[in-house]
Design a protein that fits this description.
Shape: globular
Number of domains: 1
Radius of gyration: 11 Å
Oligomer: single chain
Number of helices: 3
Bound molecules: zinc ion
Helix content: 25-40%
Largest sheet: 2 strands, antiparallel
Number of strands: 2
Strand content: 5-15%
């Protein structure tokens, strides 16, 4: 099952949507992800963006495309 686990494994933390888009070269939209229900800032960029903890089906399709063509 494809989840956000590869992100956790690579970065040691969950990232916000902006960071995922930047680091993985994807274009995840709001409806592609599910957020953690806290107001904590992204631990990676420090911005007060919501941290992504899982993907919806459309998000999974976009991330699967990335992960199938890379090692991480
Ligand atoms: Zn971030």
């Amino acid at each position: 099952m494809l989840t956000t686990r590869p992100i956790l494994r690579r970065f040691g933390m969950y990232l916000c949507r902006d960071c995922i888009n930047r680091e993985y070269g994807v274009r995840l939209n709001r409806e592609d992800v599910r957020y953690k229900y806290t107001e904590d800032p992204c631990p990676y960029c420090g911005a007060t963006n919501h941290v992504v903890t899982s993907f919806t089906v459309t998000g999974l399709i976009k991330m699967r495309h990335v992960w199938e063509h890379r090692d991480s």
